[in-house]
């Protein structure tokens, strides 16, 4: 707020030329942006008794009609925005003149759009021709698909498995699922079989809940519950696969007059009902699907899945050169070259279908029904005619002979190598793979420890040399070896390695029990290279 001066007070009290000039009507003029008027600031800050009137809005001078006519330019004088005449013209200095020019510019635009009309017409013709070609292609593909379906009507649709584009492989987590399993190798199931086992577990849980409540179990109810549990699609094809793996699990029927409380399904429609099967117990009580029975059925289903994989494994072993035969009770893992995740999918079994009512819809159905109404003499005449027309073509074209199987020839890198040597190498490799497939988990753990012993022996000797002691307690030795070994290992596991080392080489390493502690004594004078070589030979002999 501006501070008032003393002279301003006297000027406002006494009438004089200053006061008269302040009460006179101000004349509006265009203010200069560089120098603000000090006169107006003096009048606004004056201490007058009368209330100052608000300043009136300045009346803007409207341009005269002659000026408006001068602003309008002819059509040939309109230049492009980048031309120097357009930039230097006075129209660019006033925003109002810019708007007037922008309103008049669209009048010239239609004259420029008339040039590419022929090009647009040709492009439309080409697009229309391309659309007709694509429509004809779609009709052809649709006709081929219908022809293939009519030729192979028994091929089931892959419900629950979206069709993959030609040449696209399955994801890596499915193709290498068996290799990514933790723990020791064993009879691992492929990914799709494990998904089917999870589907059976969820289906058995839903069926058990509905059956224990004496409620009619339909496929629609089971499908909704299973999909909520496993977050995967569950179709009738999967139910057929479950029936193939475990035929004695459920009884399937087509029934109607089942209350559904749905608008999409009528009460008179046929629905697939599911009833669990189990051994009847003595007593008048109705059997129930308890938790123990669910667990037992799940184990039976898993064993059946393993048996399916074993059949494919037996076929793979029979196709080897030389063929291999492994007893089923001794098989603990699959063959190293047997790709578990490429096992073919389980074929779904046939489920009961709703009865179909005969409805004549095509001419072929009419002819088929008319054929059943023919007399026996007419049927015999037609069959004789068919035989006479088929006889001349049969002897003229003999059945082609199957090509003889060529003898097995060795590959190019093995040319010149004797066949006996190859047979001995293959027999030795087959024997090694047979021992590997029949190895128990305990033997597998012992082999892993034997492979680590040469390096652990070097670590243990270096610890004794650095400590400069003839003996160390077992706890101290295990702790120092855990810190020095490159793999993460617990002290208990390291203690098992030291005990195994003392069993294999009692002259080099010995354990002594004194009161409550166990001491480790090492012969530092022995040759370390000979010790490690002996451990390598023992591990190799154990692996064979």
TrEMBL record:
Q: Name one GO cellular component term.
A: nucleus
Indicate where this protein resides in the cell.
Nucleus
**SMART domains per the record?**
CDT1 (SM01075)
All copies of domain CDT1 Geminin-binding, residue ranges: 189-353
Q: What residue spans carry the Polar residues bias annotation?
A: 27-47
- Which SUPFAM superfamilies is this protein grouped with? Winged helix' DNA-binding domain (SSF46785)
Q: Where is the composition biased (Pro residues)?
A: 395-413
Locate the region Disordered.
Answer: 1-114, 143-164, 389-415
Q: What does it do?
A: Required for both DNA replication and mitosis. DNA replication licensing factor, required for pre-replication complex assembly. Cooperates with CDC6 and the origin recognition complex (ORC) during G1 phase of the cell cycle to promote the loading of the mini-chromosome maintenance (MCM) complex onto DNA to generate pre-replication complexes (pre-RC). Required also for mitosis by promoting stable kinetochore-microtubule attachments. Potential oncogene.
- Name of the protein this chain belongs to: DNA replication factor Cdt1
Question: Which organism is this entry from?
Answer: Hipposideros armiger (Great Himalayan leaf-nosed bat)
Classification of source organism: Eukaryota, Metazoa, Chordata, Craniata, Vertebrata
Encoding gene, per UniProt annotation: CDT1
